[in-house]
Amino acid sequence: MLRRCFAVFALAASSWAHAEAPPPDTDSFQVGSTIRTFSPPQVREWRGAKRQALVTRIWYPVERSRQPAQHDIGPTGHPLFRGSPVSENAPLSAAHETYPLVVFSHGTGGSADELDWLASAFAKHGYIVAGVNHPGNNALEPLTREGFVLWWERATDLSEVLDAMLADKAFGPHIDPRRVGAAGFSLGGYTVLELAGARTDLYAFRAYCHSPAADSNCHPPTNYASRKVAPMSASAIASMKRSGASYRDLRIKAVFAMAPAIGKALDQQSLTRIEIPVRLIAGTADTTAPPTTNVLHIAQFLPRARVRMIDGATHYTFLDTCVPAAMTIHATICKEAPGVDRDAVHAIAIGEAFDFFDSSLAVPITEKSK
Fold first, then answer.
1. What is the reported pLDDT for 74?
2. Cβ 103 vs Cβ 158: under 8 Å
3. Residue 61 to residue 150: CA distance in whole angstroms
4. Residue 348, CB half-sphere, CA atoms under 13 Å: how many?
5. Core vs surface per residue 281-297: b (16+ CB within 10 A) or e
6. How do the residues of the chain divide into helix, strand and coil, expressed in percent and rounded to 5?
7. Residues 265 and 243 sit within 8 Å (Cβ to Cβ)
8. How far apart are CA 158 and CA 242, in angstroms?
9. pLDDT given for residue 220 in this prediction
10. Which strand (E) or helix (H) includes residue 258?
11. What digits encode the pLDDT tens for the residues 315-355?
12. Which of 58, 104, 105, 365 is spaced 20 to 30 Å from 160 by Cα?
């Protein structure tokens, strides 16, 4: 998400739809939620964040007998988004020995909770979901310049959260390592494509941003190339030098990218070499990550990827639904155009995500003996 906060059309797998599809059946489980603060043992780039830890929201299946509590998302007393009912810190359901895992990546300046609508649906459907709050680039902590600039480091956040989830005493034994996927929104969409094998071409992106074709992705704070700011730290300079490295995580078997951003920063040849399943989804009215230079640009180098474009949806349609009191104050990210229903768009995206991961991560779940 970028907030504050063609030949492609010939692809046979592409599809266009209005937001009128019925919501998928997601009633297998209730939703549990908890927070983990992971501290990776290895030296890493923290992007100037004061809190050097990977604060991760986890959604997971719990027994239907649990009584979830409604909660809203945002500052206390001034919530911004409507959260899904969850049972905080409830035990993981014992219905299955193991569950698939999806790691989530939020948009720039956002937070994992802003994808609660999708994460909760996955938990109801029988998935464990881990959404990290990216250091230096999340709404819960002070933002940093390095957090906005060193995008490729976000992939390391997810890989290290995956390490930690597999080692976690409560969740690790119940995660099927053969069934691990990644999903992301906006800059998070870019992030999960890096996990799939895409690489960053920072110099090509800078050249593009200085050309007449430059899109809204090139404006600060996303791109600091044209700003006169203090020199970066030595660790940030070192990170810039490895911006084009591979951040492929072989444990990730499929990726789902919603309204992916900075498409022009992704090396085209690296996209053509991605071998795992990829699903892309975005809105036709997205002016924050314009489709022609982002999702559709990416898609033309991923001939086996399926693309879903939703008529009238904008970039922010893929955030949680706003509470009524926020509709006017935060109209830019909360209000939809006439005829567009955010919840209905979410239902389409949830259906696409279930269809994609259920097939891409199709290894039978081992049932516990009765």
1. 84
2. yes
3. 34
4. 25
5. bbbebbebbbbebbbbb
6. 30, 20, 50
7. no
8. 17
9. 61
10. strand 254-258
11. 999 999 999 999 988 999 999 999 999 999 999 999 999 99
12. 365
C-alpha closest to that of 261 among 224, 286, 236, 225: 286
Q: Which residue is associated with the tokens 């193991």? A: 98
* pLDDT of 113 higher than 70: yes
Position 295 pLDDT exceeds 90: yes
For residues 143-163, average pLDDT: 95
Question: Helical H runs in the chain?
Answer: 116-125, 145-149, 153-167, 187-196, 202-209, 234-241, 268-272, 295-299, 326-329, 331-334, 342-360
pLDDT computed for residue 208 by the predictor:
94
Angle between helices 116-125 and 342-360 (to 10 degrees): 50
Tokens in use for 325?
Answer: 């009191």
CB atoms within 10 A of CB 240: 15
Q: b/e string for 70-106 if b means 16 or more Cβ within 10 A?
A: eebbbeeeebbbbbbebbeebebbebbebbbbbbbbb
Residue 191, number of CB atoms within 10 A of its CB: 34
The one-letter amino acid code at 79 reads: P
| Residue 115: predicted pLDDT | 97
Treating both helix axes as pointing N-terminal to C-terminal, what angle do 187-196 and 153-167 enclose, rounded to 10 degrees? 70
Q: Give the Cα separation of 111 and 55 in Å (integer).
A: 10
Tokens standing for residue 247: 């951040």
pLDDT of 172 reads: 98
Number of C-beta neighbours around residue 238 at 10 A? 11
> For residue 226, is pLDDT > 80?
no
The neighbour count for residue 125, using CB atoms within 10 Å, is 21
Q: pLDDT tens digits for 241-271?
A: 999 999 999 999 999 999 999 999 999 999 9
